[in-house]
Amino acid sequence: MQHNNYKTVKATNGDMIEYEIKSFDLGMKDVHFSSDNKHVVAFYRTRSDYLRKRLENLIYKYNPTSHSEAGTYWENLFLWPTHIIDDKRLGYVVPVYPKHFFFTAGFNRNKEKNGRWFSSPKLRKMLDPSERGDWRGYMNICILISRAIRRMHSIGLTHSDLSYNNVLIDPKGGHACILNFDEFIVPGEHPLEVIGTPDFIAPEVLQTMKYPFKDIRRKYPSIRTDRYALAVLNYELLLCRHPLRGGKKHDLDPAIDERLMMGERALFIEHPADTSNRPEEKPPAYMPWIDVEKIPYTICGPYLKELFDKVFIDGLHNPHERPYADAWEEALIKTVDLLQPCGDSSCEQKWFLFDNSTKPKCPFCGWEFTGQLPIEGSYKEESCSDELYL
Amino acid sequence: MKKLPVYILLETCGGLTGGPQRCVQNALHMMTLFLKGDQHAVNTVYLSIISYNSYAEQVVPLTDLSSFDVPKIIGHGTIALGEAIKLLYEKIDTEINDNYCAPLVFIVTYRGVSTDNWQPAAIELMKRKYFAITFFAGFQGDPDVFRHYTDMIIRIQYANADLYNALFYWITEIIIDYSKNLSLELEEVVDLHKYLPPNELEIISIR
Predict the structure, then answer these.
(1) DSSP symbol at A295
(2) Same domain, yes or no: A91 and A130
(3) Hey, is B84 helix, strand or coil?
(4) Per the domain annotation, does A314 fall within a domain?
(5) Among the three residues A71, A95, A119, which one is the final residue of a domain in this structure?
(6) I want to staple B41 with a disulfide (CB 3.0 to 4.6 A). Which of A97, A327, A338, B45 is the partner?
(7) A91 part of a folded domain
């Protein structure tokens, strides 16, 4: 049925979906806005039973937003598809990005708040100051992302391409959202031949990319590689640098050097025993974040330090050592309780962690706390996070 | 999968010194950061920078993204656009083979004119296959110098940081979108109308 500039189609559950005829090209899909502008209707260019089955699995079997009580909460963290359309063309309906995920100030106003903008000091400085957020905001964002990934993993879903490109974050408002459900791996499915985003590909996957697809030596995206990517994302959002990009050179050819640095010869830039990969160059545009002496990863507190050590020291080449997503969620929640405000109103980060010393000092601007601090120990030894699970 | 060659011609005349020079430098860094963080771009994009002032020089030969570093931009001298166009088509002839699709060319001007004889080089360039967009900064710039051999001429109103960033972000979006199409082995033809610029960038002419 056609009316003016709209078309109507029936979804597989019987709902009628009205959408604009005008479409946008999005890689392998044609995308239309719904008539109420609250949803997007995406049609695959080619139809296959495999894609239909995937959509059914994702919407009817592995869907956190369908939970009767908690579903609404998860709708905010994922833009999960709501309908399947299989009427001459195969497609799905998905909510539009909420307004808080678009910049409202700066040269990139109206662009999406893709995580990339916030993970590099140079890019953060280009943002309008009102959009940059503070350290507490980033910590809350990390909690939301870790929680979302934990929820996915708990039902067996693998993201497969978790990176700053596949999250929308809003540090000033405290929102985050996971994208790219098209590449989620459903339990029982063979991993797709996903390239992955540079910086986030686990070392074992990078090392074995030289083997053909389905070769027994090849390592694929899995929940274990998601855990690696989650750790890198948390490290980048909190410390604005990559955990493996340091001063060590492995080869004169930059492409080979890159592959070795991130794969076979990966070494944590803040490894306590091996300092050969400490960042050497400290360009002003990357300061103060690139200075690991001034802003070491230990400023994130003992709970996060322990997890960063597990991933970037023990678990770098041992995927089984990598902490689970719920460990990140729990550690971040405990860490937020240790935050104290910086007294220097010009400090961009505005918060830092109490470090148990008698003279806490903001690592970002050097402001020193004077006076008394109320300290309260509130965590038992055993895990207290049962009530966080839904 | 085909590779995507991208040539950026930068007018680095004496007038660029100071603020505009810093803006261009920063915007190039921003573009590089985004391209290096995109899986499709990393697999397909090859970048080259040709700088032109009193003479033209290919300061960065066609290089894959992982090896690419932003060169230092220094403004000095006159505006040898003709030499730059000649260098561009010579490099297209020598650097591009069947493994590449037709190059994207971005001509980032400052004064937007030429102090040498550009017509013969332009006639030669037009015999090659490429897609080009020219950018003017402010209300200087002569469209007639560029109209016949570029597909689109865009102006930013002022040579300030915000507008240069918006300009280079738009260039980045085009490159990423195009590299995604190549990576997924979709069509190779560039339809520039698909890439209409944001409001801050004014279209002066389009073919």
Answers:
(1) S
(2) no
(3) helix
(4) yes
(5) A95
(6) B45
(7) yes
What distance in Å separates the CA atoms of residue A26 and residue A43, rounded to the nearest whole number?
10
Neighbours of A99 (CB within 10 A): 9
Q: Split chain A (390 residues) into runs of 10 and give each run's mean pLDDT.
A: 76 92 82 92 90 90 85 88 92 94 92 94 94 95 97 93 95 93 85 79 90 86 94 97 94 90 94 94 89 94 96 92 96 94 92 83 89 63 45
Whether residues A91 and A110 fall in one domain: no
> Residue by residue, what is the 3-state secondary structure of A161-203?
CCCHHHEEEECCCCEEEECCHHHCECCCCCCCCCCCCCCCCCH
Dihedrals phi, psi of B73, to nearest 5 degrees: -100, 125
Q: What are phi and psi of A26, to 5 degrees?
A: -130, 75
| Domain CATH for B147 | 3.40.50.410
Q: Report pLDDT for A15.
A: 93
- Distance, CA of A316 to CA of A320 (rounded, Å): 10
Q: Are residues A76 and A104 in the same domain?
A: no
Q: Looking at the domain assignment, is residue A389 inside a domain? A: no
> Domain residues for A29?
2-95
Q: How many domains does chain B have?
A: 1
Give how many domains chain A has, as a whole number: 2
List the beta bridge partners of residue B202. Answer: B155
Q: Give the residue among A205, A225, A114, A100 at the shortest CA–CA distance from A162.
A: A225
Handedness of CA A227, A229, A230, A232 (dihedral sign): positive
Inter-chain touch B66–A254, beta carbons under 8 Å:
yes
- Chain A residues near residue B61 by CB distance under 8 angstroms: none
Tokens at residue B23, please? 């803006």
Query: Is A168:A138 a contact under the CB 8 Å cutoff?
Result: no
Q: Which residues of B touch A251 (CB under 8 A)?
A: none
Identify the domain containing residue B150 by its residue range.
4-206
Is A89 in the same domain as A137? no
**DSSP-derived pairing of the beta strands B56-64 and B45-52:** antiparallel
pLDDT tens readout for residues B156-183: 998 899 999 999 999 999 999 999 888 8
Tokens coding B161: 């940081």
Separation between Cα atoms, residue A94 and residue A117, nearest integer Å:
24
How many CB atoms within 10 Å of residue B74?
13
Q: Chain centroid to CA A35: how far? A: 31
My answer on whether A137 and A240 are in the same domain is yes
Do A83 and A122 fall within a single domain?
no
Contacts of B29 in chain A (CB under 8 A): 122, 285
Residues A187 and A331 occupy one common structural domain: yes
Q: In chain A, whose CA is at the least distance from the CA of B69?
A: A254
Note whether B162 contacts A: Cβ–Cβ < 8 A: yes
User: CA-CA distance, A338 to A332, in Å (whole number)?
Assistant: 10
Identify the DSSP state of A292. T
Identity at A267, one-letter amino acid code: L
Quote the tokens at residue A300: 């994130």
Residue whose pair of structure tokens reads 């070494």 in the numeric block = A267
pLDDT for B101: 92
Same domain? A37 vs A185: no
